[in-house]
Amino acid sequence: MFRIGKQNDDFVITDKQAMVKLLDTLLEMKKKNKQVLMTSKLLRTLRSYYNEDKRIWRCQALKNFLVVDHLGRIAGCHTHNFAGSVFDLPKKWESKEFNELRNAYQKCTRCGYLCYIFYSVQGGAFGHISLAMDQWKNARLLFK
Ligand code: SF4
Question: What sign for the dihedral angle of Cα 47, 53, 54, 57?
């Protein structure tokens, strides 16, 4: 099992309605303030998750993101078993084994980590286009 840390109950978001309120506030702020760097798509996805217990995204582990440990072992995310080493990536990336893992991860509901949700909803061609459309006004921050 990959571990980058253990869950600390002190940091688990338990007040879901407070989270919904925060997300609504951020969505409202985005209308006037371009420096909110979270995309509207991500904020709406999180809102559904906290308000309706609905996962409107499909996890894209091992497709849009993966994790690598200090020994070069890789996994779709830190909660699943490793699937090989970085040296296997060229031959395994398009393999049946990896595609089956991706299908399993798309159905997985074991976590709601913000970074994994972001990479899932804003990865891929459409995700990148919607990210660019959402954040183009902040492009100059990249050059600072
Ligand atoms: S939902 Fe979370 S735990 Fe499940 S595969 Fe995706 S990142 Fe991993």
Answer: positive
Atom of ligand 1 at shortest range from CA of 78: 8
Judge whether 143 lies within some domain: no
Domain-embedded: residue 56: yes
Q: Dump pLDDT digits (tens) for 50-75.
A: 999 999 999 999 999 999 999 999 99
Helical packing angle, 16-32 and 40-52, nearest 10°: 160
Q: Which atom of ligand 1 is nearest to the CA of 80?
A: 8
The boundaries of the domain holding residue 20 are 9-138
Model pLDDT for residues 23-34, shown as the tens digit of each residue? 999 999 999 988
* Number of structural domains in the chain: 1
Determine contact, residues 62/79, Cβ cutoff 8 Å.
no
Please check whether residue 3 lies inside any domain of the structure.
Answer: no
Say if ligand 1 is within 6 A of residue 83 CB: no
The answer to whether the CB of 61 is under 6 A from ligand 1 is yes
